[in-house]
Specification:
The radius of gyration is 18 Å and the shape is globular. By secondary structure, it is of the alpha/beta class. The strands form three sheets. The chain has a ten-stranded mixed β-sheet, sandwiched between helices. Strands 3-2-8-9 form a four-stranded mixed β-sheet. The chain has one domain: 3-Layer(aba) Sandwich (UDP-N-acetylmuramoyl-L-alanine:D-glutamate ligase). Helix 9 packs across helix 10. The mean pLDDT is 94. Strand 14 and strand 15 form a beta hairpin.
């Protein structure tokens, strides 16, 4: 009898994403006409859940939202995409999180966010649950602490996002060392969390429970910090970039999925780069690739991984 697929519980935001595809990002007092528009589910934790489900893993989303999200079919779309929404708390008198995304040619984007019911998230709403991977996204360290102390999991990953990194700075690292196996940052967040420490010395950030730090560098790829060394993976080029929204969420979902399956962080890093590279060629934050697509490129054209030698 085959064992069950790994289970992920993603804790964080669930949003209604309203996309407007425009020829340029307007400035003050300007009006850009949208050539295309669409509405769908979004939020870092929701994006992560869809990406994990696309790999055949079991994915549960722990979030809060308003009744409007249900009425617009957002929860139904997540369910159709393989995500268990039984841990989503629906409020009758709260607005759901809403994000307006303006996407220009080349993938440039501007986002306007209203958190709404997302502000009610504590992190301990699924006390006693079990998972192979617990992922906390775009939330502060108190949510991480409550989730990690009430949900049993083999791997805990934490992607605090820009707002939490600016607000809590070095406290992000302190909490990650205590509670997380994987810490995910972009370049700006790295500087906020690590201060003046250059990436070449990033192994000093590891300690306690924390085994991996991932620094996302967009078109320049990503850096994986491990106890064995620092590894740079090239950004995977799958075609024309049309929308970068959610690429980081896809990256960490695939990294965690391959890590829990294979315990091989190099393969996980390559698979994550491939997945993000495919995603940015597609519209929408939840256009993650399938396992078959990722595996094909892993066999035929895996992105280069080499030891990181310093630099920006």
């Amino acid at each position: 009898m085959e064992s069950e697929a790994p289970r992920h519980i993603a804790v964080g935001n669930l949003n209604i994403d309203v996309y407007m595809v425009v020829d340029y990002i307007p400035g003050p007092d300007e009006n850009a006409v949208a050539r295309e528009a669409y509405i769908g589910p979004g939020g870092a934790a929701a994006n992560y859940s869809v990406a994990a489900a696309r790999l055949g893993h079991r994915a549960s989303l722990l979030s809060h939202t308003g009744r409007l999200a249900e009425q617009l079919g957002v929860l139904g779309l997540l369910w159709e995409r393989g995500v268990d929404t039984s841990l989503v708390k629906i409020h009758d008198n709260e607005m759901p999180g809403i994000v307006i995304v303006l996407v220009a040619p080349g993938g440039e984007r501007t986002m306007i966010t209203m958190r709404g019911a997302n502000n009610l998230l504590r992190g301990d709403e699924a006390s006693g649950a079990e998972a192979d991977v617990l992922h906390v996204a775009s939330r502060g360290t108190e949510v991480l602490r409550r989730a990690a102390s009430t949900i049993r999991s083999k791997i805990v990953s934490y992607d605090p996002g820009g707002a939490a990194a600016r607000r809590e700075k070095s406290r992000i690292l302190e909490a990650a060392r205590e509670l997380a196996d994987v810490l995910v940052l972009n370049r700006v967040e790295y500087r906020l969390v690590a201060g003046d420490k250059p990436l070449s010395e990033a192994r000093d950030l590891l300690g306690g429970k924390l085994k991996y730090v991932i620094v996302k560098k967009g078109a320049e790829g990503a850096i994986l910090v491990t106890r064995d060394g620092l590894w740079h993976v090239d950004a995977f080029r799958a075609g024309e970039v049309v929308d970068t929204t959610g690429a980081g969420d896809v990256f960490i979902a695939v990294f965690n999925s391959y890590l829990i399956e294979k315990s091989d962080y190099i393969t996980a890093l390559q698979a994550a780069s491939i997945a993000a590279g495919i995603k940015v060629t597609r519209r929408g934050a939840q256009s993650a690739p399938s396992r078959e697509e990722i595996e094909r490129f892993l066999r035929e054209n895996p992105p280069r991984v080499h030891e990181y030698e310093g630099g920006a």
